[in-house]
Amino acid sequence: MLTWILYDIEVTKARTKIAKLCQKFGLYRVQLSCFLGDINQTELKELALHIEDLINPHKDKVYIFPISKDDFDKTILLGMAFDRELVTDEIKALFL
User: Fold this and answer.
1) What is d(CA 21, CA 15) in angstroms, rounded to the nearest whole number?
2) Tens digits of per-residue pLDDT, 76-86?
3) Which residues, other chains included, contact 43 with Cβ-Cβ below 8 Å and sequence gap of 6+?
4) What CATH number is given for 2-94 in this structure?
5) Which of helix, strand or coil describes residue 58?
6) Mean pLDDT within 7-23
7) Which of 89, 73, 86, 74 has its CA nearest to residue 30?
8) What's phi and psi for 65, nearest 5 deg?
9) What are phi and psi of 80, to 5 degrees?
10) Is residue 2 within 8 Å of residue 89, measured between CB atoms?
11) Where are the domains of the chain?
12) What is d(CA 26, CA 23) in angstroms, rounded to the nearest whole number?
């Protein structure tokens, strides 16, 4: 399932670890604290548990938004937006 992960993490070390985790799980970095990619439910739960262990629940914010393929196809990209084909299974399969 396509999923957005956005965060605002106060501590640099935790923020860096979360970014590396998102990349390890195959998510594409859209902005500094925003990732998007195709991830299955099991992997998403595992990633969420790792993130939960790293954050301060009283100060940090993490948002995980699943999005349907139909909704993703309706997104409007302006300016120097990301390449939507980089976050789909079809394109990733070409690089394996």
Assistant:
1) 10
2) 878 777 777 76
3) 25
4) 3.30.70.240
5) coil
6) 96
7) 86
8) -120, 105
9) -85, 50
10) no
11) 2-94
12) 5
Q: How far is it, in rounded angstroms, from Cα 50 to Cα 7?
A: 14
Rounded-to-integer distance, Cα 61 and Cα 37, Å: 19
Q: What is the value of pTM for the model shown? A: 0.80
Angle, vertex CA 67, rays to CA 9 and CA 48, nearest 5: 40
Reduced to 3 DSSP states, what percent helix, strand and coil does the chain have, rounded to the nearest 5?
45, 25, 30
Which two tokens mark 1? 């399932």
Sign of the Cα pseudo-torsion (86, 88, 89, 94, in order): negative
Q: Distance (Å, rounded) from C-alpha 84 to C-alpha 51?
A: 25
Give the three-class secondary structure for 6: strand
What's the start-to-end Cα distance of the chain, in Å?
Answer: 19
